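pasting for ref. prot 1 ->
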Amino acid sequence: MATKIGVVVFPGSNCEHDVVKALGLFGPARVEAGLVWHGERSLAGYDAIVLPGGFAHGDYLRPGALARFSPVMEAVAKYAADGGPVVGICNGFQVLTEAGLLPGALQKNRGLRFLCTTVGVSVCTTRTVLTGESTVGAQLSLPINHFEGNFTCDAATLERLRAEDRIVLRYTANPNGSLDDIAGVCNEDGNVVGLMPHPERACDAMTSSTDGMGLLESLVVAATRRAHVPV
């Protein structure tokens, strides 16, 4: 039976179909990816959840600030607490921080410029659902597309992220001013990951890189393991 991955859609999401298409490259026998409307209150039956990029609820107040109150986010919080793999990409990362599922916050880019380019990132840990099949130090080329991707947190939180091996990805040439070059972080258990780069946009020969497939492979492996855990 195929591993089932849900991609949450908020009003204003615009990368959900990109994620579904990228996951579809693994083939229907291995992965079944589908959309989950933000009004859903249950994630039963899913082996992993992705919060995609876009402008959830128009990014009013702050990116992710309204999306955190969507009914599905209570289900996401319960799913994550139960050990379920959850990945937030770009706006999805912002939603996870606003919901308190990840530490820190995303603020406006240094120089107040919208960034749409390809950047280099380095894998910092393999203890997460997004990097479990990677290697520490691996260099990846991934697209970014954001105005508020500048990760920030207080000094104590940064010290804890470093000490607990929770910095997942770092930029090799910081494009947005993120503290400590951080491009992605995880929760204590490594099953919730947020990142600003878009791995789903680096998955086939028509793009500048296929490095995103390795990250999605890790997610699929983690989801498959969860699918085979006895209930």
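and prot 2 ->
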Amino acid sequence: MAQLLVLSSAPGGGAVLPALELLSHRVRQIPAEPAQLVNAPSADVVFVDARIDLVGAKSLCKILTTTGMEAPLVLVVTEGGLTAVSTDWGVDDVVLVGAGPAEIDARIRLAMGRRSAEQVSSRISTSGITIDESSYSAKVHGKPLDLTYKEFQLLHFFATHPSRVFTREQLLSEVWGYDYFGGTRTVDVHVRRLRAKLGDLEQLIGTVRNVGYRFNVYEDDQPPVPAPSA
């Protein structure tokens, strides 16, 4: 049984998807207004009513996707409204208002399954570190790391290129970009700060003397052997 949230501003407040009433899912319906989203209840799937106001529904979908909502979005439309829907709406699926309970139930399962798979694929776990690409966050043994955006980018780059040695110039180019005019010293500074935040796992970022740095990967999360700092 899933928690479903229906966003609708249709007059009368009637059921947006009548077939939902024939299913065992828990359904909450609130006005489709940005102000209502602040205290909106949590949901496994969010349905957006686009039967009447396609323009308003599209704007609401964009707000929901840009604010980082994790639940999949399913758009409820009439057959005529299908022609207006495109990828830039940011929805996960579309369902016709007259869809039967079996179809709606299947779409709920598929939407939840796809989103769960996407969330798993966006995470990198290695040597005690977990990196979540979708939320730009990282954890060490389950504890959140307080990283700046650039520190996160550097850690992410290292973790996605394990055991490979990079010079400071290469790191500067890959993480900071070709248009960055600062010197390679900024790489050393960020590595030092990142190591300090990694604590006991600081030596995951190893120094290759006279060359640069590499991300050390250890089997079974065994602690790395201490190495000289930069």
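The CA atoms of residues 151 and 190 lie 6 Å apart.
Residues 223-230 have pLDDT under 50 and may be disordered.
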